[in-house]
Fold Antibiotic biosynthesis monooxygenase.
Amino acid sequence: MIFITAKFRIKPEDADRWPEISREFTEATRGEPGCLWFDWSRSLDDPTEYVLVEAFRDGDAGAAHVQSEHFKTAQKTIPPHLVSTPKIVNFAVDQDDWSELGEMAVE
């Protein structure tokens, strides 16, 4: 799978509304056949920072995502709400779901 984590710095005046602002893009992406997950979290230390954790089945699914109409729309509608260009970590891993964190096993 292609595993991606990205940090978005949102303009302070838009930070509380970010779930609403990004909703259409989020829902469309989650509806892609190759999307495994697409989840936003808000930083506990910086209320203007949101972290996106997303995964796609494979490189073809990732390519389909960036070529989709909703991605092209987001390229126009998302940046006006940002303080800076998002930071990203993107890599391929040989699995298709989350693994358990054995060091913190619940028994």
